[in-house]
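Q: what sequence does this backbone want?
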């Protein structure tokens, strides 16, 4: 429990963000046992309970602070989270990323396409028009990807190796004869199964890097089970 002192009444949104919590990470506010929205003016003696985003649970009958949860969880990552974006794509999660996108562009993409904005910039998540966002706590990309899977309860909804890690496009099987000229000679001799991105035409196969990618996938699938 946290006690806050103030001289004049302020909105519950302002007081929550003054505590360092972006409004995008709040799904439900209860003031004196009643659900309220961000404009609620806090009065002396109020008991306020703040709950995090429930993307995997529908609490729309009582939530008042933002639009309903996203039934299709999709992401856009800021320019500091390039490796996280690649790992999320590895898991089959629709994740947009461009290194040179500005903060206003990220907010516009998030709001127009209903994507959850992933960032390590708390200030960015306080943008007034942003409705869905998440502050990444971990600094290591492998820990970041399991953090996202755990936070949004996605371990049972993964489709590994179905998206291009480079551009986010979908992968489709391709005949070896059609791409054999594009792979190293040593690969041609012992690999027969290939996939190609339907967007950028990048070719994929199970090479020396595959076991490491499998370990990342396995850790993500365990993410929810690791929570007691």
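A:
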């Amino acid at each position: 429990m946290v006690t806050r002192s103030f001289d004049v009444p302020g909105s519950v949104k302002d007081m929550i963000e003054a505590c360092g919590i972006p409004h995008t990470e709040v799904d439900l506010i209860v003031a004196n046992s009643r659900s309220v929205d961000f404009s609620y003016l806090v009065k002396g003696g109020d008991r306020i309970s703040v709950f995090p985003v429930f993307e995997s649970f529908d609490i729309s009958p009582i939530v008042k602070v933002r639009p309903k949860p996203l039934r299709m969880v999709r992401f856009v990552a800021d320019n500091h989270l390039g490796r996280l974006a690649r790992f999320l794509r590895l898991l089959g999660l629709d994740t947009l990323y461009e290194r040179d996108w500005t903060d206003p562009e990220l907010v516009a993409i998030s709001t127009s396409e209903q994507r959850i904005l992933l960032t390590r910039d708390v200030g960015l998540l306080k943008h007034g028009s942003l409705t869905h966002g998440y502050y990444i706590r971990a600094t290591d990309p492998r820990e970041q990807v399991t953090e996202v899977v755990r936070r949004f309860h996605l371990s049972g909804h993964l489709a590994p190796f179905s998206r291009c890690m480079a551009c986010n496009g979908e992968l489709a099987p391709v005949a070896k004869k059609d791409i054999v000229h594009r792979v190293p000679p040593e690969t041609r001799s012992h690999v027969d199964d290939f996939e190609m991105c339907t967007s950028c035409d990048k070719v994929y196969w199970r090479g020396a890097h595959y076991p490491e990618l499998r370990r990342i996938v396995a850790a993500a699938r365990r993410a929810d089970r690791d929570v007691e």
